[in-house]
Target: Class F sortase
Amino acid sequence: MPVAAAGTTGSGVLDVPADVDVAGWWRGGSRLGDPFGSIPVAAHVDSDAEGLGPFAELLTVRAGARLRLEADGLRQDFEVTSRRLVPQGSLVDDAWIYDAAGRLRLTLVTCAPPYEASRGGYQNLAVVTALPVGPPEAT
Model:
């Protein structure tokens, strides 16, 4: 799945690409090849027009699953260590999702059930954390 650089909206929310087939990497996070911090990548789980997107798989991914990230002439494999549900809203208390400090990790984020239209849509975020299996390699 392609990943495009993403900023934040005026209210501080990650400006995820509208296309469910494109993920957004937060420019403020760590990058592939960095020695530490979170590499935060987010995408929509679905859309009315496009149906389910690839990140829908995050709702059922299990620890041990392997992922590959490629960018800027590098690739690195990661292994899923956890999947957590975090309530939608401010992530101030969940800085581990996007913090550029700490152990290097890939952090994948998408919306998660329940979906309540009267309350603005999905009520949770699925946050999948994956750790590197080895060092980055040149592509």
